[in-house]
Amino acid sequence: MTAHTSVMTDRRSGMIQSLGYPQTSTIVSRAVAAAAANNHHHSTSSRRGGRSSKRYSVSAFYSMAAEQDVEVEDELAQAQRTLRDMKSKISAQSKKNFMLERDVRFLDSRIALLIQNRMALDEQNEVASHLEEHDDDNDDHYPDDRKMQQYGNLFFLLQSEPRHIATLCRLVSLAEIDTLLQTVMFTLYGNQYESREEHLLLTMFQNVLAAQFETTAEFTSLLRANTPVSRMMTTYTRRGPGQSYLKSVLSDKINDLIEQKNLNLQINPLKIQEEIIERAEMENGGESGIVKSVSVEEAAADPHVKAFLEPRLRTLIDLANSFLTTIINSLDQVPYGIRWICKQIRSLTKRKYPDASEYAISSLIGGFFFLRFVNPAIVTPQAYMLVDGNPSNHARTTLTLIAKMLQNLANKPTYAKEVYMIPTNPFVENNKIRINKFLNDLCEVGDFYESLEMDQYMALSKKDIMISITPNEIYNTQALLQQHIDILAAKETDHLRILVTEVGPAPPQVPRKDNKPIELPLFSRWEMPIQDLTTTLMSENNITQNDILYMEAKAIFVQLIRSLPYLARKPLNLQRIAETAGTANDAQLVRKGIKVKEMLRELEEAGVTDRRDGYQLLVEEITQEMQHLGDLKLKVMEEMYSLESVYQTIQDHNNYLKSQLESYKAYLQNVRIQSGGGDKSNKKQVGIGVQVAEGKVKQKPGKIHMQGPVKYTHQQLEREGIIAETEVPEYRRSNIFLTISSPIPGTFIISLHYKGRDKPILEIDLKLDDLLEKQQDGVKLLDLEYIKLDVSKTLQLLTKTFMAKNKTGFFS
């Protein structure tokens, strides 16, 4: 290496350290080499403009370096750090929600069995294990240092070479996929807003989709069955960017519809006929005189039904058109990853089925975009936190019909599955061209391979790639890898096989309370230094030492101006900027100032720049870079604003899921208290002051369990949405209050009082089982004659007020 090359390498090292990276040239050299090699690969077919494309990619890297907020304290840097923190919070909260949702799904089915008294004691223990809290004091579950290093190597390889995970996702069973998806979507690629992780995850999707297209015999069944692949695609849409899109695009439309409480758009003729008969019987106090039809066609011919159906149909089609227009106009808001998946679906379909029509291709894209992403949010907006309360029955019916119409439009079927949907066919016919264009436009996004290659090289030299992963995620992945290693890595020399062999058999799963997240550093075992970078670049890629020197100087000047913004006055005086930094009180600025002054001298000696014209070319490029950073600051602030709303939504959903689990805890406690028995006397003490005798719960003498009564005003419960509907006249509501007491665990007495009266107007005895059963059956309201309570919110209130106070122990 020449003396000049050594100087260049030293200068690069100093620059990198000044940017906050380790004092090594590898981060720049690898990125430059990656960009150069990548451009070499992409320009072999056309040499024209090759040099400019190389300069562009390498320049892009140095622009990236100039954007770093390390050691810079301007507004952009502060906004970037705040944005990074917010993205990190969203990613972490998304993972927590995914885990909670999985628990709630499991418990929904198990609690149903408990309610029906069809669960053995060991199964009750299994339910209890899903409700245990983490024990923050136990560190025994941490792997030792050697294992941590082996796991760090293994998970770096899995993260950076997505083909392994892609193959594994195809090999696991449907029962195993949720656990693996948690690790893949929210741990391995958990930083949902970090481009490298997002791009690697999308590369994995490309592998999975390509295999799905290869192995699916029937075109019509592609991506529609409930398979690990379809589950993966649905889970991907539930990440932060997808949730943000749904909230910003659909929330207002759905809330506007829900507010129209009396809007009934049921279009099933049989159900309309039932409405007419019921109304007529109520008005006449007996028979309606209308004969019930036996088929949809027969009911549709009834003139009474026609009178209701036609205006409803017009309104419904107008609403569906309005939803469709909103979705089509949101094209630019659709997250990049979702559009890129649509692009892969189109590309794979064209390659595998060259004779497929444009309509057939767009129906596959629509199957993903609408069936897996948009429509579930329309049908159940409360599950996606798009609405504050639960939609009424009428609103739910309308939303379901709109989703069906959008799905029919996306699928472009030749017939309607349900006869009563046939009258909506004009909506499908009139919007075919619009939807086809939209679904094709979704696919028009660029690829990311160049930037990913650069990111990958940068990752090799970074020492701070971390993932937050639980022991059970590690051990489960380890076990799956071992189970399928002969397919994943058949050769003895395969890196994956070497690492899986070294790490050994997977330990058993740890108890839930010990399954605390571990911060696992990721790094590559096969990191190879790039020797003699300058020679490589010069000989193979036409990038000179002067090119690199010029771009480094530009990046450092941008950093200096960001640190000393008063130097940004135009025209830029580069000598003055270097002098000011070189004589500053900050050692970092001094080092940068001296370094960049020397760089200017070398660039002038090489004839690249000229002091006499004020280094005009360099000044122009620095000015453009500062303009870019100004635009970047606005984008960062806009993104921050939108993500704050997303984070609040995700937190709200987390609180809802937690309240569900609290209800289950309370119910399980109640079951355990009341499921006594087994001894000869058929008596067993199961809680403080409570015993079971002859199948009945009784208070022990001298031991009082009674909690409450707790008093709530009508206005308070109405304001919090617990009273969903009321028949109490508004002028009397201030005199109405409710009291709730709990004489024994899981049993509540709700009394409705009027001020000044000694006895309650109404008193009911309510069991926790009853409420949970209503929730299981989808019953939204509890009818108390004068008022109707929201079942879900009433459960939350009872759990919070009574169960949280009961310290007898959920699992004793």
TrEMBL record:
Gene3D superfamilies membership: GTPase Activation - p120gap, domain 1
Annotated keywords: Coiled coil
PROSITE patterns given in the database record: RAS_GTPASE_ACTIV_1, RAS_GTPASE_ACTIV_2
Gene Ontology BP term (one): negative regulation of Ras protein signal transduction
SUPFAM superfamilies: GTPase activation domain, GAP, RGC domain-like
Domain of life: Eukaryota
Pfam family, one: RasGAP
Protein name per the record: Ras-GAP domain-containing protein
Organism of derivation: Circinella minor
Taxonomic classification: Eukaryota, Fungi, Fungi incertae sedis, Mucoromycota, Mucoromycotina
